[in-house]
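May I ask for a sample protein chain and its fold as tokens?
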Amino acid sequence: MTTRQQSRVISAAAVVLLTLLPTLMATAATTTDRRWWPLDSYVKVWIKNEIGGGRPLKIHCRSRDDDDDLNVHVVKPHETYRFRILPNIFGTTMFYCSMDWGTGLHWFDIYDQGRDMHRCRHTYYCTWIVKETGPCLTNGEFTACYQWKN
């Protein structure tokens, strides 16, 4: 194959690629199932108060860089506080929450993209059960409990 023929093959491949790329992007933008498209998939974080003793749980969540402050929320016993996060493409999204139920302030990284990305990916839900001993992440397939950071 001559150099000129090789150039024509490469040019034809570039035309095909440039024709298909917008179609693929439009399909990705309009699909209803985003499980395969991580750049536009929110993760829903649910934090359920299972402290016990009928005590309310005061929660204050923020992003690691403090760009997003979700303010203070008081969660009644057995109720759930919910918010959603759009993880970044670098895999570094992190939210931490301070929690208080009358025994002092406790905190935990409630969403760490490096830790939770695959655990919450199937359903896009990170469900946390908060107990005095620490928070437990559950996704229907497993439960992982952690100790408070402080």
